[in-house]
Amino acid sequence: MAARPQVGIAVLILDSKGRAIMGLRQGSHGAGTWALPGGHLEYSESFDACAKREVLEETGLTVGNVQFLAITNDFMPAEGKHYVTVFVGCVILGDKKEPEAMEPDKCARWEWMDWNEVSKWAKSQAEAEKSLWTGHYLFLPIVNLFRQHPDFDIASAYNSYS
User: Fold this and answer.
1) What string of DSSP letters covers the chain?
2) Which of 46, 54, 88, 158 has the least C-beta neighbours within 10 A?
């Protein structure tokens, strides 16, 4: 049987300052790159349920108001992987607002990063294709978000949660 793409969920959690939670990946494909919380969509699981589960497992945060943002097609030939990544946005529920590295073997740490800066890194990284890149390395689905959706507007996405 031919290999088929897997489905990943990437969760954009923004605060009122336009910052997103980003984690430094380790121990898996994309190790050493910065990524959004998320993971594999399980059989019969909704995007909403997957986003909530993955964010809780990875960061210890409870989220809600999950909304679809975009989809990317992410072929990673060097790693023998192909994903369709579904980007969703959401807000943090409850009093706990700071992420914790709940799975330190998969993510070294979580940080709040200015999404406008992430956008600039993604665009620069896409142009340099890592050979000359000296900035933050981003996980391929984030770079592809800006490649495949150049008009993606974070302000519009954030306003839908306010």
Assistant:
1) -----EEEEEEEEB-TTSEEEEEEE-SSTTTTSEE-SEEEPPTT--HHHHHHHHHHHHHS-EEEEEEEEEEEEEEEGGGTEEEEEEEEEEEEESS--S---S-TTTEEEEEEEEHHHHHHHHHHHHHHTTTS--S--B-HHHHHHHHH-TT--HHHHHHTT-
2) 46
Question: Residue 45 has which token pair?
Answer: 């699981």
Which of left, alpha, beta for 78 (phi over 0: left; psi -120 to 50: alpha)? alpha
Q: What is the pLDDT of residues 71-101, one digit of tens each?
A: 999 988 888 899 999 999 999 999 999 999 9
Domains and CATH numbers, the chain: 6-159 (3.90.79.10)
pTM: 0.86
